[in-house]
Amino acid sequence: METLSSTVPGPVISSQPLDRAVYDATYKASIDDPDTFWADHARRIDWIVPFKTVRSVNFHYPDVAIEWFADGTLNVSANCIDRHLAERGDQTAILFEPDSPDEAAQAITYRDLHGRVCRFANVLKALGVTRGDRVVLYLPMIPEAAVAMLACARIGAIHSVVFAGFSPDALANRVDDCGAKVVVTADGAPRGGRVTNLKDNVNRALNHAAVDPQVLVVKRTGQQVAWYEGRDHWLHEMEATVPADCPPEEIGAEDPLFILYTSGSTGKPKGVVHTSGGYLVWASITHETVFDYRQGDVFWCTADVGWVTGHSYIVYGPLANGATTLMFEGVPTYPDAGRFWAVCEKHGVNQFYTAPTAIRALMGQGEEIVAKYDLSSLRILGTVGEPINPEAWNWYDRVIGTGRCPIVDTWWQTETGGHLITPIPGQIETKPGSATLPFYGVRPVVLEPSTGALVEGNPAEGVLCIADSWPGQMRTVWGDHQRFMDTYFQQYPGTYFTGDGCRRDEDGYYWITGRVDDVINVSGHRMGTAEVESALVAHEKVAEAAVVGFPHPIKGQGIYAYVTLMQGVEPTDALRKELSDFVRAEIGPIAKPDLIQWAPGLPKTRSGKIMRRILRKIAEDAPGELGDTSTLADPAVVDDLVSHRMNRG
Ligand code: WT7
Asked: Per the database record, which ranges form the AMP-binding enzyme C-terminal domain (predicted)?
């Protein structure tokens, strides 16, 4: 048996022997007989009517259909709250740390949470929300965000959380796509000492949305807001008028729990649909296993609830497991770059889960600021969102974990519901930069990108697909099952295509190499290049635009835009800023281009297709690796782009 590189003694699991045999045996059982394995493990949640059928899966285009535990019924909110009341009603469920360290933290017990969710659910009912209706949540990172999600789950409504950093336009598109009956928001969102006027954004979004939802407003900052009588309602006023109790509805395992919009390589963002039973089993088992969550631990995932990470590892996984989950409203650098560590010390955090971009940013602030805090409560460190470079991994291990905390580099996606490839502490030895091995029940395969042929043996390199379903898998794209099949099941028949490239080393470990499609990963946030392009060309001075990613030291990838202006428009720095701000307003700050290069022409094939491969190489400052440019309609445009390239090393 091997041990992890544990140098500092302490009551930590990394000082215990690593038992790879446990993983190997459990994994084998999960693959040999998934029906038995998942029938057993699905008992970790409470069913109203127990399921008889474990799974019914067809991965073959064009008949893709995925069901888990389909004849079972349950209520997700009862699983996350009610069933814990007898044993841990007085335990903290949600620990809320506000943006300002001067504002008191709040400890919300499971009993408090029950009361708040029941009232909220009754408010939704009073607004006419019933089973199957959609409710859009556009909220700060405050307890009401979790309360609203659970309240929807309680009555069988489908929530769609929209990240509060998205613009009014982006919000309007999502409200329309899902046909929201209610939008829940707050007056304002404090973040990093500044306030975003969320209610204002909702007003603007609904001004040009096609549907006409009611608006429920949480009072967070107390600021003035423009009010629309008949449409807008204060949460606290309505709560005073509704009954305190709301019995959970009986929901089918395959009834949708939520829709979450995510960017793809083409078109507008798609509404990823997750259902109730399988998703909850997956969020719960991965949260407990991958983070070695033990009763009484304080778990902190720093993501925003607007992303899937927040859904699965702030709300559903932890609460299904009766955990104490920390919700942080602020940012890592406010009031200073020690905030994460101050919060870890203040609340005695045991598991800390963040993104490589945050680690790299804080790494740049030096070790002195970390040394001010007592981080001895930390036991497990996690990362998610993008490949982590070994330098950042080693810093995280040495400076934050002092060599005694296993690091779990968890690879997954909005579509997967929870972790798919990840170390399991105490079972799988880590390697810096590798997400290591598949979680129980997950069957990764590496395919040759152009032919789809299976690459067998180790080492291997190619595109990453998953050969069979797992309970937490997305089921469809909201309102567009064809798009679901086309995106994930058409290109490599019989498997789920992840969109990522990967390498599998001689030990069978997976190393994710990044997206192979036109999706870029900016600070762990997924952005479709097509979305940024369509925002740019919506500007009156822009004739054409092509967007690619380029390596960025902190963000992982930055956004590089090539812009062709309309005839006669002067290319100036002021216009660069104008275009950046325009994209920001159309989509949100995360979509703002880092670099804009004026392009008199774009490299196109004779059939008019933009050759992005070439644009990527120029953006990477690798003009020597352009490859064959002879098929271009006008090879000369490349020379101009190369000589004016903006990212010079
Ligand atoms: C894409 C999914 C899963 C929640 C956060 C992002 C990349 C994610 C890792 C990792 C390497 C990673 C992939 C994936 N990604 N985690 N540990 N190592 N790459 O969710 O917005 O749906 O993005 O993020 O490229 O496809 P998402």
From this structure: 531-609
